[in-house]
Amino acid sequence: VQLQASGGGLVQAGGSLSLSCAASGHTFSNYVMGWFRQAPGKEREFVAGTSKSGLNTNYADSVKGRFTISRDNTKNTVYLQMNSLKPEDTAVYYCAAGTSDFAYWGQGTLVTVSS
């Protein structure tokens, strides 16, 4: 499956951004989807995940209550709505897809939060 993330940009602290990740090449609803991020000088970390149906989601503690992951299986797209952004949310954000693990990765989109 091919993944194309978009929606990153520069935003002030307290602002919002919405990321999208469009999938192609395989049946989208067969895959668990996730968002990860990697800040400069840090390891990549899990941000949020959603089940194949979208009914179940989970989040890193650092983003709970601020970020929302969702998916539209009719559009082969997963979203990440990010509210109340903080400078520490600055990172390259990646979407990923998989079944038993996240085997497929998009190219990443940069989110920069200014203080």
Short description:
The chain has 115 residues and is an all-beta fold.
Which sequence of SSEs, written as H and E, runs from N to C?
Answer: EEEEEEEEEEE
Major sheet: 7 strands, mixed
Determine the mean pLDDT: 97
Radius of gyration: 13 Å
What would your notes on this structure say?
There is one protein chain. By secondary structure, this protein is mostly beta strands. Helix content is 0%, strand content 55%. It contains no helices and eleven strands. Strands 2, 4, 5, 6, 9, 10 and 11 form a seven-stranded mixed beta sheet that branches. The termini are far apart.
Keywords:
115 residues, mainly beta, seven-stranded mixed beta sheet, four-stranded antiparallel beta sheet, 11 strands, globular
Layout of SSEs?
Blueprint lengths: L1 E5 L2 E4 L4 E8 L7 E7 L6 E6 L6 E3 L7 E6 L4 E6 L8 E8 L3 E4 L3 E6 L1
Parallel strand pairs: 2-11
Antiparallel strand pairs: 1-3, 3-8, 4-5, 4-9, 5-6, 7-8, 9-10, 9-11
